[in-house]
Amino acid sequence: MATYLVTGANRGIGLAYCRQLHSRGDQVIAVCRQSSDELDALGVRIESGIELTSADSVAALVNGLGDQKLDCVILNAGILQSMGLNDLDPDSIRQQFEVNALAPLLLARALVPLMPEGSKLALMTSRMGSIEDNTSGGSYGYRMSKVALNIAGKSLAVDLKTSGIAVAILHPGLVKTRMIKFNPSGISPEESVQGLIARIDALTLENSGSFWHASGTLLPW
Ligand SMILES: NC(=O)c1ccc[n+]([C@@H]2O[C@H](COP(=O)([O-])OP(=O)(O)OC[C@H]3O[C@@H](n4cnc5c(N)ncnc54)[C@H](OP(=O)(O)O)[C@@H]3O)[C@@H](O)[C@H]2O)c1
Q: Looking at CB atoms within 10 Å, which of 134, 189, 198, 217 has the fewest?
């Protein structure tokens, strides 16, 4: 039984991670700002009241974990605020950068001391952060924040290799969650997370730092 910490655990993809990891017998530490009935019903350990952009909140989380070892950390929480060139909102761009790129980097740094050799770090990014794949433009804040997360993930993979920690940079596919207003053309969080967990299970120091679609396809930077 391995211990997984998951952020953004109260709903969407994070909740599906918690459900599937718990049901296969792993120990789950579910991190969220506010729990949900669905998360409460799982019976996993919940660390609520954690605002990931707050240094105090992150310190409280780490403090609460004590010397708990983490075999896998899944930094999944994120926000999407769409905007085009004609309605650029600098505050929104800063906020997306803070939540989607800076907060995961700082939390990863804070949790690394709890991660033994052989442990794994999974960053939930997006194909929208692929420069090569960008044919539709727009979504400035979201795209910029996910590119920043991708390069942070690559640096983490390089820097943590000597500690024996492997890093996955993961795109979940188009997933029917609140983030995309439950767009009916998306797949279910359950289906996406089946693929994502398979990618994490297959993560090694040799393939660390790669950008994967949940389906198993390697994505271009
Ligand atoms: N859905 C897709 O199609 C899709 C595609 C590509 C990538 N992704 C990525 O997948 C990840 C999960 O997305 P999702 O679709 O599951 O979205 P979601 O349903 O909107 O869930 C987002 C989660 O992030 C949490 N969160 C947001 N800001 C936070 C903050 N400042 N502090 C703590 N928690 C915060 C939310 O908590 P609250 O409930 O407290 O707001 C919620 O648990 C995100 O990183 C997203 O960018 C999703």
A: 217
| Tens of pLDDT, residues 96-116 | 999 999 999 999 999 999 999
162 alpha carbon to ligand 1 midpoint, in Å? 30
What is the atom index within ligand 1 of the atom nearest the CA of 174?
3
**Residue 138: what residue type?**
G
Residue 141 domain flag: yes
79 pLDDT band, cuts 50/70/90, is: very high
Establish if 220 belongs to a structural domain: no
**This prediction's pTM:** 0.98
Residues 36, 71 contacting (CB under 8 angstroms): no
CATH number at residue 71: 3.40.50.720
Q: Would you say residue 58 lies in a domain?
A: yes
Q: 45 lies in which domain range?
A: 3-213
Phi (first) and psi of residue 163, to 5 degrees = -90, 0
The answer to whether 50 touches 33, Cβ cutoff 8 Å, is: yes
Pairing between β-strand 72-75 and β-strand 3-7 as defined by DSSP bridges: parallel
Mean pLDDT of 113-123: 98
Q: Kindly report the protein residue whose alpha carbon is nearest to atom 10 of ligand 1.
A: 124
Q: What is the pLDDT of residue 93?
A: 98
Q: Residue 205 C-alpha to ligand 1 middle, in angstroms?
A: 27
pLDDT, averaged across the chain: 98
Per-residue pLDDT at 47: 98
Number of domain units in the chain: 1
Residue 175's Cα: distance from chain center in Å? Answer: 14
**Does the beta carbon of 210 sit less than 6 angstroms from any atom of ligand 1?**
no
